[in-house]
Amino acid sequence: MTTATPFAYRKALAAIPMPATARLTAAQLRGAGCVWCAAELHGDTAIDLEQRYNRIVGVPGRWFPRGCSPCSLRAVLAVCRTHPQTCEQCTDDPTLCEMRRALRALALELRR
Ligand SMILES: [Zn+2]
Ligand SMILES: [Zn+2]
Q: Which region is the signal sequence (predicted)?
């Protein structure tokens, strides 16, 4: 993925649910390991999953989860599947939904 993440992608990334922080290791919370599979991440393969606010060891705070591309792709596809059920725009006319478009574009990007 390019360094300047387009705004629509960032919104789509922010829509991906994260695992409960209580189950994650320090490396995962630091963004050094994939938030889903714990694989060690290296600069160009890591996907930034946007800033999150959660309780971490009881203290509310910001963290910056990252994922490996296969896990991130799986997570994006899962959101693609469930998104229309919770989106008014998609019930109305899915072709006009920006979030749906962004999720699909993101999935295509991650598949490369
Ligand atoms: Zn992973
Ligand atoms: Zn939608």
A: 1-22
65-94 tens-digit pLDDT? 999 999 999 999 999 999 999 999 999 999
Residue 48 Cα, ligand 2 centroid: separation in angstroms?
22
Q: Which residues contact 35 (CB under 8 A, 6 or more apart)?
A: 18, 19, 24, 28, 49, 65, 66, 67, 71
Q: Cα 61 vs. chain centroid, distance in angstroms? A: 18
Q: Which amino acid is at 83?
A: H
Mean pLDDT confidence for 85-107 = 94
- pLDDT at 44 exceeding the cut of 70: yes
Query: Which ligand is nearest to the Cα of residue 35, counting in written order?
Result: 1
pLDDT of residue 96: 94
Residue 54 CA to ligand 2 centre (angstroms): 25
> Cα of 39 to ligand 2 centre, how many Å?
31
- Among the bound ligands, the one closest to the CA of 80: 2
- Please state the φ and ψ torsions of residue 53, each to the nearest 5 degrees: -120, 120
